Amino acid sequence: MIGVFNKASLLSLLRKHPNWNEDTLSVKFDVSAVRKLDVDVVRSKARALLLAAHDSVEGCRYDDFYSAVLLLADTSEQFLPVWFNDEAFYKTYGVEVKKGQKTSRALNKVCLEFGATSAESFNSKFAELADALNPINIPRTASLSIHPCDYLEMSNVNNSWSSCHNLDDGCYRAGTLSYLLDSVSMIFSTVDKEHVQPLYKAPKVTREVFCYGDGVLLQSRLYPDYTDRDTTNQYRALVQAIIASCEGAPNLWHTTHDVDNFYGKIETCRGSLHYTDYTYADYNPSLSTLDSMDTTSSYISIGEVPKCLHCSRDITESGQLLCDRCYDGYKCAECGCSLSEDDGHYVDGYLYCDDCVSYCDWCNEYTREELCTVYTSTGNARYWCPECANEHASCCDECGDYYLLDALTEHEGMWLCPECLKDATSAEEVAS
To answer: For 261-313, where are the E strands, in sequence order?
Structure first.
């Protein structure tokens, strides 16, 4: 099985875990994710409650009821936050609520005080609002895998999100092979609990690349939301626990998020074509070292030169899964980038990409020559190839810029553009 041989050290290590599955080449376990509060959903449910209670609250008090409910709902917190002014709330609305109290409980007190609970649909509308204000634990199945298919499907086409490693059109699709062929990379992913085997076929809810060797653990970017630090921290703790258990070591680690401290502990293999998420601080990567191991001289090399799926030669283009010799597409004659024939432009019998040619506004042809800027009498710019500019335009004798012929005016034996003509006549008026 391609890639497993290079993962021999990881295979030997992870096999020690009690949750190891030989068929899926992964450590499989259950996790729970917390559904975050959605501000827009909370506000929508609050307005639905207000509408339902409209006829049950005395008309003169409805405006206060309306503002009290929205004020509490707009906190968008499960519990009233520390910044909430409960004293001002009591003085304004006559309802006693406290910081740290469940927001749904505070809302219920408001509804009781204003008589909203008598509304026919109150119970159902309030239940929907309370549910929106209370996070839910969602059970999921997680795996830490070295199965080849998990690398190839690290950006599964069935996901609700995608990345540059997508096999269909990812500009770093060759990176899936780079990760597969190295000796340190693992794929951590979660899928919905109800999904059956094999997990690599399931749409991934979340995914991260972890790399481990010699007591050094690298955590790369969390997909789809790298800003979710709680989930990032949770997954790192899970993988740390797995590695420590397999190493027979206490689960004690030193972790840094400073990418400047990664150097000397990690390197990216020359010729590897994966996207190096872990080099960008904004993506919240981390580097952990196992306290019980001497990691003074430890480092891990991430990625490998990917191999053509057809002939096993080296791949040099990040957006290809085949080598140049086996690739069916076309290449730009200038920069060498891959492109389809439909996306390229032929000039003198050679195919070029958009970046390596220019388009002439006059002859409507692509050219390899630098375009000339040709101005109209009103100063609007046209971009022509040199041949069209020399044939259908002329240069101002003063400034040297190209202008349409009708934009030039003869003045004392010189053909001048509007600006130069203005300057010349102004100078003459001053002299006179």
So the answer is: 266-268, 286-290, 300-302
Q: What are the structural domain ranges in the chain?
A: 5-34+138-302, 39-132, 330-354, 366-431
* Residue 266 three-state SS: strand
The model's pTM is 0.61
| Farthest CA pair distance, the chain | 101
Residue (of 117, 106, 148, 125) closest to 42 by Cα position = 125
For residue 209, which of 258, 252, 247, 154 has the smallest C-alpha distance? 154
Q: Report CA 221 to chain centroid distance, whole Å.
A: 9
95's tokens: 């309802």
* pLDDT for 209: 97
How far apart are the C-alpha atoms of 55 and 33, rounded to whole Å? Answer: 40
User: Which pLDDT belongs to residue 2?
Assistant: 47
What residues form DSSP beta bridges with 414? 411
- Out of 1.10.3470, 2.60.40, 2.10.110, 2.30.29, the CATH code matching 366-431 is 2.10.110
Q: Which two tokens stand for residue 212?
A: 């481990």
The total number of residues written for the chain in this structure: 432
